[in-house]
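Page 42, continued from yesterday. The earlier attempt failed because a stray header line got pasted into the input along with the sequence. Redoing it now with the clean sequence only.
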Amino acid sequence: MVKGLPVRDWDQLQERLQRTLEEWFPAFWASARGTLSPALDLVEREDAYIVRVELPGVRKEEIRVMLKDNVLTIQGEKRQQSEQKGETHHRIERLYGSFSRSLTLPEEVDASAVTAKLEHGVLEIMLPKLRPGVAPKEVPIQ
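This time it went through. Structure tokens are written below.
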């Protein structure tokens, strides 16, 4: 408690500060809380969207890519390497743990043609757009 500031006011001040930090500096605030939020780029071409996500040190077996209702979700986990005998950590700045990023795509994509590859710590997801005049495929219910 700040000297002279009632507990209730202090709590409101903390909440307001947290909301401001989350709004102005989302990447910094996520790392300060220890939550992984990998950086990504979304590029639009005439025929497709390309999403590139920085995932250094993450193996492809530790990543899930899902597309549902035009929302792309990337989930996974960055695991810390086991400590070797005789090693003493003096500083650990890299973040480890689960991550999840979702983004709504501006147009419909052809879900049957989506591809993904992981190369040099960058996950690249190719999301072809539906061609004009082609109706989305209706999936029959069994």
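Notes: DSSP finds two helices and seven strands in the chain.
Reminder to self: strip header lines before submitting.
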